Amino acid sequence: MLSTDRSLPNTGHRYVPQITSLDIPPSPNQELLPLTAKVNSSDNLEIGGCELRKLVEQYGSPLYILDEFTLRTACSQYRDSFTTYYSGESQVIYASKAWSCLAVCRIIDSENLGFDVVSGGELYTTLEAGVDKDKIYFHGNNKSVTELEFAVEVGCTIMVDNWLELKNLVQIASAKSEQPVPIMIRLTPGIECHTHEYIRTGHLDSKFGFDPNQLDEVFTYLSQQESLSCIGLHAHIGSQIFERQPHQDLASVLVDWMKKAQGYGLPVTTLNVGGGLGIKYIESDDPPSISEWVSAVSKAVENACNQAAVPLPKLIAEPGRSLIGSACVTAYTVGSRKEIPEFNTYIAVDGGMSDNPRPITYQSVYRAVVANRMSAPITEEVTLAGKHCESGDVVIKNAALPKTEPGDILAVMDTGAYNYSMASNYNRIGRPAAIVVYEGEANLIIERETYHDLIEQDRLPERLVKHQE
Ligand SMILES: *Cc1c(COP(=O)(O)O)cnc(C)c1O
Predict the structure, then answer these.
(1) Is the shortest distance between the CB of 116 and ligand 1 below 6 Å?
(2) Which one of 19, 104, 318, 351 has the lowest number of neighbouring Cβ atoms within 10 Å?
(3) C-alpha–C-alpha distance, residues 429 and 331, integer Å
(4) If pLDDT is split at 50, 70 and 90, which confidence band does 83 have?
(5) 60 contact partners, CB below 8 Å, separation of at least 6
(6) How confident is residue 29, by pLDDT bands cut at 50, 70 and 90?
(7) Largest CA-CA distance found in the chain, in angstroms, rounded
(8) According to CATH, what is the number of the domain 28-66+331-454?
(9) DSSP letters along 153-192, please?
């Protein structure tokens, strides 16, 4: 249904890339489309020099299309901004839960970033990608003993979240490691920020981290452990945050805690301020740029250190979404159309909640373009539905689009973070393929799951096997 009371973007050029030169690329997290997006002479969208229509012909749909240039640009903007704005040592680590696979890890590793992993599986993936243990930080609020043993064997830094873990780790470290195991302590900073309840982690009522009221107890205990070396403190306040103030507040809280830890004789000289910088999913989203965020955090840490008269710590930030979110689009093929006069028009695509569970989980909003007819004027507002047996399986609720036909290619933007990594096989739909595009070349980085893949882990007990008589 065409709504008359809401102003539709009527130019048809609404999301057409405006970037004319990549000599000085904009901040990827402030763009809807990847930085290399172009409309070619046949009115088709190209990313990384590859036409989406042709990519779908070759690889099928749904298809995750990762733009290597955009990802590398976000990495270098983070890295270079810290060098510019922070006088001490710094390190940017990728929160790999946003999207962990070998190719993504290789690209980010080659940009000299480190990695935050939150499970044995993510740790394994990072190691298989060839990442050095010294660049890996192991997070999680309920690491199993097996995971802790794995991390100690590897020799990465462990972000300790709670008492149970701390005590398990003391045992494992004493038994298994000749050298003290490097750890950092995660604390709940008690800082509120405006984001979805499920992705808010900094307020005191959070499952993550030690209660700051127990600081003395934790530091006293740590100062007695020879098997552990507490090198730093960590806090993460949440995700998809547009305000700079919470991160600035966090910086001074962390510096105060560092000073306190040093008073207990702990070698705490590293502070990790977490991630959380938001990205632009829709026109009205207005996040600070990567360099603005880094500058604000760096200055806040430096000011707090000056006030507390402590030397500058090694400063770590661990962004996920703002590194990779804007670097990927998901291409779908348009299928059925259902018009309910006076109510709504549903356009269904060949994927949905199994490849992008964010709308149904967090009510997240996205934008899409018709990639094979980029200048077609926008004429209708529809509900872009998925193909799963679930009424809530909607990709975009109020999608302003040109009239689409079955077979059109829709590109949903900003699907790099928390899409593939949250994908499932609901309805026994295989997870889509993912490709990376760079300077006109496309390479497969994750195979599409086949029917056979779907039953690969299934087992039939002998008494259920159907024997042919
Ligand atoms: C998820 C998470 C991040 C990354 O958050 P983004 O919003 O994707 O930048 C960083 N640190 C921790 C501990 C996290 O849980």
Answers:
(1) yes
(2) 19
(3) 16
(4) very high
(5) 432, 433, 448
(6) very high
(7) 84
(8) 2.40.37.10
(9) HHT-EEEE-SHHHHHHHHHHHHHH-SSPEEEEEEB-----
pLDDT tens digit sequence for 402-427? 999 999 999 999 999 999 999 999 99
At 378-392, the pLDDT tens digits run 999 999 999 999 999
Assign 134 to helix, strand or coil: helix
Cα–Cα distance measured from residue 434 to residue 96, given in angstroms and rounded to the nearest whole number: 16
Nearest to residue 328, comparing CAs of 348, 355, 354? 355
Contact 200 CB / ligand 1 (< 6 Å)? no
Q: Supply the DSSP symbol for 452.
A: H
Q: What is the dihedral of CA 174, 178, 179, 184, to 10 degrees?
A: -40
Tell me, yes or no, if 389 is annotated catalytic: yes
Task: Please answer whether residues 141 and 119 qualify as being in contact, where contact means their C-beta atoms are separated by less than 8 angstroms.
Answer: no
* Predicted structure pTM score: 0.94
How far does the centroid of ligand 1 lie from the alpha carbon of residue 342, in Å? Answer: 43
Token pair belonging to 317: 């930030």
- What is the residue extent of each domain of the chain? 28-66+331-454, 139-319
**pLDDT confidence of 205, banded at 50, 70, 90?**
confident
Q: Coil, strand, or helix at residue 208?
A: coil
Ligand 1 binding pocket includes 325 (Cβ within 6 Å): no
Higher pLDDT, 12 or 105: 105
Which residues fall within 8 angstroms of residue 114, CB to CB, at 6 or more apart?
Answer: 91, 92, 93, 94, 131, 135, 136, 137, 316
Class in CATH terms, 139-319: alpha beta
